[in-house]
Amino acid sequence: MSPLVLLAIAFAATLAVLLPVAWLIWRSQDEATRALAGRIRRLPLGAKLRLAVRTFRDGRIALPVRAIPPLLLLYLAMPIDIVPDFIPVLGQLDDVLIVAVGVGLLLRFTPRPVLEELVAELGRAYRERGGDGDAPKDVGAPE
């Protein structure tokens, strides 16, 4: 069997597992959680990275949940992927799916008050610094 066929099979298997999992995780979220996800989405990249670090360091969050951000970064940094990155589109799509599932798990299992506190703190700090012209002024603010 050619390597291209094996890669196509690996990609199809990845999609068959990860897409339903991502959909189920997102579908099971209530409106408050979706609003919180929107607030996180509006944070600039630097604030999102600080959120990941603070989530990892916060002792109120269970250790397996705190391990999700470093594991995501490790997976993205590893040269070995489910589908190699040199394959156009498909190589990056598996990374996007892994990140989506990881973020979904992080949102699902982190206590909401803790996550809301961290996001509000980062949003407040960002707004106090004046933010940047590209980001909305209500970054990190409750909707």
Notes on the protein architecture:
By secondary structure, the protein is mainly α. The chain has one domain (3-128). It is 71% helix and 0% strand.
Helices and strands, with pairings:
Blueprint: H1 3-27, H2 31-42, H3 45-57, H4 63-66, H5 68-77, H6 90-109, H7 112-128
Helix pairs in contact: 1-6, 2-7, 3-7, 5-6
Helix count, DSSP H or I runs of 4 or more residues = 7
Structural class: mainly alpha
Number of strands: 0
User: What shape does the CA trace take?
Assistant: elongated
* End-to-end CA span: 53 Å
Order of helices and strands: HHHHHHH
Largest sheet: none
Helix content: over 70%
Which regions contain 5 or more consecutive residues with pLDDT less than 50? none
Calculate Rg over CA atoms.
17 Å
Number of domains: 1
